[in-house]
Amino acid sequence: MLNRYLKEKGIESLLFASGAVAVVVLFLLCIFLFRDGVLLFENYPVTSFLTDTKWFPTADPEHFGLLPLFLGSLIVTVGAILFSVPLGLAAAIYISELANPKVANFLKPITEILAGIPSVVYGFFGLVILVPIVQKTLGLPTGQTALTGSIMLGIMALPTIISISEDAISAVPRSIKEGSLALGSTRWQTIYKVTVPAALSGISAAVMLGIGRAIGETMTVMMVTGNSAVIPGFPSGLFEPVRTMTATIALEMGEVPQGSDHFHALFAIGSVLFITTFIINIIANYIKRRYRFDL
């Protein structure tokens, strides 16, 4: 009895230590980002950083405008989600509800394998295959556009959305589906009026994880979006080169003088990315709690 008690206490202590380490690492990461990011504003106004439409860190005077980078990330991420969510949800419904078990058992591992492909491979594929297709099809000066980045990020987010949505749909109790069918609903009515709403908590989590994957991606967007730090137009901005926040950090951090305003500006961009991801996670948790409560 005593050994069992000690074993349970040991497991409990180990789990607590694991959680505490995660919190401490997150706290240290916040300090690391915000400490160097805030130093930018000793010499550069916060309002200029947030509203300036130019990113010219080597000009005289320097311009550290976040706006074109933020809008570039926003248009690429929104495009990726508009592309991947309907397709991913449809694929998840097919695998979970409609496909033959043998087909489903083949498709599910394939989608999970796609999630493990390195982002540089996706970027290389987009640069060699998709960029020329977009350029020729739309008659654009270059195929390295926000649209190309959105398609590639949508493809990268698909495995996450499909896998988690399929798990959520499969977890809906069979009795609920059978009850709907017994009341006279067709198979399609049961899927979109009963099964999908019942799995909405998991589906929303899948969408938020897909958004997180898209907004935090670096290598792929750096290779296929053209890296032009200008304000994208609307709606023509989808067909123009853009630069994202993540690509800016990756392109410039290796050559920037340490301790300079440019160096601190890149940390400030990283802080904005951190805050954006944090807000997305809060929204995801709110959606999950809301729909779980409604059900």
Automatic annotation (TrEMBL):
The keyword Cell membrane applies. InterPro entries: MetI-like, MetI-like_sf, Phosphate_PstC, Phosphate_Transport_Permease. It holds the Pfam family BPD_transp_1. It is a multi-pass membrane protein. One of its GO terms (biological process) is phosphate ion transport. Keywords: Cell membrane, Membrane, Phosphate transport, Transmembrane, Transmembrane helix, Transport. One of its GO terms (molecular function) is phosphate transmembrane transporter activity. The keyword Transmembrane applies. Its main location: membrane. Residues 70-284 form the ABC transmembrane type-1 domain. The chain crosses the membrane at residues 12-34, 69-93, 113-134, 146-169, 190-215, 263-287. It is found in: Cell membrane. One of its GO terms (cellular component) is plasma membrane. It comes from the Archaea. Part of the binding-protein-dependent transport system for phosphate; probably responsible for the translocation of the substrate across the membrane. PANTHER family: PHOSPHATE TRANSPORT SYSTEM PERMEASE PROTEIN PST, PHOSPHATE TRANSPORT SYSTEM PERMEASE PROTEIN PSTC. Belongs to the binding-protein-dependent transport system permease family. CysTW subfamily. This is Phosphate transport system permease protein.
